[in-house]
Amino acid sequence: MKSFITLVLIISIQLQGKSTLMVILILVMILILILIMTLILALILITMLFKIRVQNVILILPWFGPLKLIGDVYYTA
Asked: Which residue ranges does UniProt annotate as crossing the membrane (predicted)?
């Protein structure tokens, strides 16, 4: 969390000349990226904990295309 705050500070310093709307948009995009990454990590952890086949998770969440690839690699390794 501390690294995220420093990242925000660096971005705000770099974008002092830019409009505040652009800064807000960039921050929202960064937050969305972090949320997506944590969701994918949580899904991988759930599949590992409960030994659920990743294909079942893909049926529930069809929009997570890359997750199937990660799951296949995990189960074949």
From this structure: 27-50
Alpha-carbon distance of 77 to 74, in angstroms, equals 5
Averaged over 55-63, what is the pLDDT? 53
Residues 6 or more apart from 33 whose CB is under 8 A from it? none
Eight-state DSSP code of residue 18: S
Distance CA 41, CA 35 (A): 10
pLDDT above 80: residue 71:
no
- The 3-state DSSP class for residue 71 equals helix
Of the chain, the end-to-end C-alpha distance in Å amounts to 32
